[in-house]
Amino acid sequence: TTSIDPITGLPTGIVSSQSTSISDKTVSLSAAFNKKVGNVVFSAGIFDGKGGGSIEVRNLNDTLRLGFTAYDFSKDSSINKNNPRYRFTSSYQFYKNFYIQAGVQDFANRDYRTMFVGGGIRWKDEDLKKLLGLAAVGR
What we know:
This protein has 139 residues and is mainly beta.
């Protein structure tokens, strides 16, 4: 806030200043049931601790993926001000099991919209057996 000189009408200086920072550090769970039909995967389950569903289109032998997720349809605005939540993702598997990913979260709400990039490793059960040395045990 500033005070105003009653004679000149000009600000005389800062009387007080306040800054607030809020940090949200939580852990959330995601688990879903998936059904692949052709090159489209439908999912339903828990996304970031809230119920929802997603659809993902896969091309180029599953190396290119485009997905859309909608979740957290709760009506209590005191819990989450930006319900429901939407996420668009894209990923490309560029070398064997390694992929890069990018997308946008909460794109329908300008105040909460965030973009993300990252990467990871995808594997199948056969890959895990080889990694853990269990391939011979399963025969």
